[in-house]
Design brief:
- The protein is 86% helix and 0% strand.
- Helix 2 crosses helix 5 and helix 3 runs antiparallel to helix 4.
- The chain has one domain.
- The two termini are 21 Å apart.
- The longest helix has 45 residues.
- The protein is built from five helices and no strands.
- By secondary structure, the protein is an all-alpha fold.
- The radius of gyration is 19 Å and the shape is elongated.
């Protein structure tokens, strides 16, 4: 079996987008609701530690890999039938706008605000105010990322199926 650059790019993008969608789903489904049950200090400390731990080489590859994969897929498939190209284009836009842009301009500034706070020396009122300015906004933005990454993943799979249908007809 011979693999073209297009096939390798598509499979890699599907895998990495799927991993990102799974990560976002897990945070939305279990992580944030779980730590949301903690008191203000416990919640904020937990979030600080998770934010510190998640920035690692593997995460960077899984998170930013799809960005480059989507761009490559759109370019490599620019001459494909409109249905395939439009699904790839939509998958890319969903990922870039709904995951990367939301993260960089929404979640990261909130994470930085949290990171810059000395939680140990904050009063209970300060902790409550910080949590109130962080939690709901972060969760709303993250829900957008979860939905966008899942829809992007789905569109990539549908693109493969459509390509298979086109090949068999």
């Amino acid at each position: 079996m011979e693999f073209s650059i297009n096939t390798v790019t598509t499979i890699s993008t599907i895998l990495l987008t799927g991993l990102t969608a799974g990560l976002c789903f897990t945070w939305t489904n279990a992580v944030t609701p779980g730590i949301g049950r903690l008191d203000d200090l416990g919640y904020l400390q937990s979030f600080q530690e998770m934010n510190r731990a998640i920035i690692n080489p593997l995460f960077i590859i899984v998170f930013f890999g799809p960005l480059f994969g989507h761009i490559a897929n759109i370019y490599l498939n620019r001459n494909q039938p409109n249905t395939i190209f439009l699904m790839l284009f939509a998958a890319g836009i969903l990922y870039v706008a709904g995951v990367v842009v939301i993260t960089i301009f929404g979640n990261v500034p909130l994470n930085e605000m949290l990171e810059s706070t000395d939680l140990e020396n904050s009063s209970p009122d300060q902790l409550k105010a910080l949590r109130n300015s962080f939690e709901n906004k972060w969760n709303r933005l993250h829900l957008i990322r979860a939905i966008a990454s899942t829809l992007s993943f789905l569109l990539l799979i549908l693109t493969l199926l459509q390509n298979q249908i086109n090949t068999n007809t």
